[in-house]
Every structure is written in C-alpha cells, then in structure tokens.
Write a structure and sequence with these properties.
globular; mainly alpha; 257 residues; 11 helices
Length: 257
Amino acid sequence: MKHTVGPYRFWILGILLVLILAEIAWSWRNDKKAYEIKETFSNLAVLTGFHLSKVLFTGYQLAVLGFFTEIAPFTFPNNAWVFLLTFITTDFIYYWFHRLSHIWKPLWAFHMVHHSAMHMNLTAAYRLNWLSAIISPLFFIPAALMGMPADFIAISYALNLVYQFFLHTEAVDKIGWLEGIIDTPSAHRVHHGSNPLYIDKNFGGVLITWDKLFKTYQPETEKVNYGLTNGSLGYNPFKLVFKGFADLFTGKMKLKS
C-alpha cells in the first residue's frame, strides 16, 4: 500500500489544499461564515498530529490485519471482484464501528473530537483522534478472518476516509436521487448536527443504505447546529484530542455531550 499511495501523496495533499482554499473563497464571497480562524488552525493542528500518529501506527494496523489473514481458513484471490467485495464489507463494518462509537462511552472518548467542531468545512474532516489507529483495525478482524486480503481491507478503509473528506462541506446542496443511496454532504451535515432530530443519525461511510436498512437515516430538513450539545471545547488541540479520555476516566463522560 505504501508503494501504491506514496508517490501520489503530495499530489493528493495538494489537491486537498486547493479544495480547502476554494471553499474558503466560496464562504467569503457568499458570506457563509463556514470558517473561523482559530478553529481552522486548531483543525490543522489536530490534522498534523493525526498524520504523525499514522507514521507510528500504520505498521501495527497492518500487522493486526495480516496476522488474522494468515490464520483465516482460506484467502480470496487478489482481483477486482474481491476488492469490490472487500470494499462493501469494509463499509458495512465501518457503519457499525461508527455507530458503536456514538453509543459506547469508551469509543465515544476517541470519537468526540470529531464532533467538537462548531463549523462544517473541509478542515473539520480530519479532526480525528490521534489514538484512533489503536482500535480501528480491531473492528476489521472479521473481514480478515473471512479471507479478504489485508492490503485490500487497509486500502478500502483508507478510501472510505478519503471519500468522507468531501462530505464535510456546506458548499454542496442535496444531490437528487443519490440522497439515500450514498453518503452525501447533506446527509453528513445531519450526522454532525446537535439538533435533537439529528443526533445519532447517518453513520454510513460511503453507502448510506446501511442507515436506511437499520433505521438510522435522517434527511436534512432543518438548519443544522454543529458541535457538541454542551458547546465548544475551545481551540487547544491537546484538549480536543484528550478531553474524551479525561471525561471517561473521571466519570464525567456523557454521550452526545
């Protein structure tokens, strides 16, 4: 995977930067106030820490998946159909991983930082916990035991997260018949809402059909209020990343807080 993605990493980062600058221009021209300076720099600080954590944990993640792939009763061949099956399976597992992260306090401790952003924009997409890589591969062990190649699982999960980058924006309105089939910016805005109507809705990564199937789908019908239900956590990236753990271990943890 390193040799596949590595040569294009800087191109990918360049494209993401151009998209962020374009969204900033759109927000300014249309007076959307989608960006707030302190929060934007806070998001970028969290992103930097997340990328550093990937350097530390990528080997561990692949080792976990590789170990369970090795002990699987059989292994699927590396071909396009198997990759498609792996991608769909990974997306299904992500739905449940994401959903559990909202209803089980130990997982919410990892995930809370992502929902603490008070503005919806592309820089908020990677407001991710620096330690999340410790637990994420554990949820994909069933796919490895089913014989799906470890590199296919890793690439599928990576593509899932890259796709979700594009969902964190107010610049894209509803996109017609695709709503209710794939996750869209509109559906994901709902997921980030602290409105009572929107809490614990739309957990899908790429496909929103899982939410339709398991009754957690909610279309965007009212203005979204972003952030946690108890307001802002401030701008300190260390506080943002570790506040969930502090609340968990001191007994102050409240789901959706």
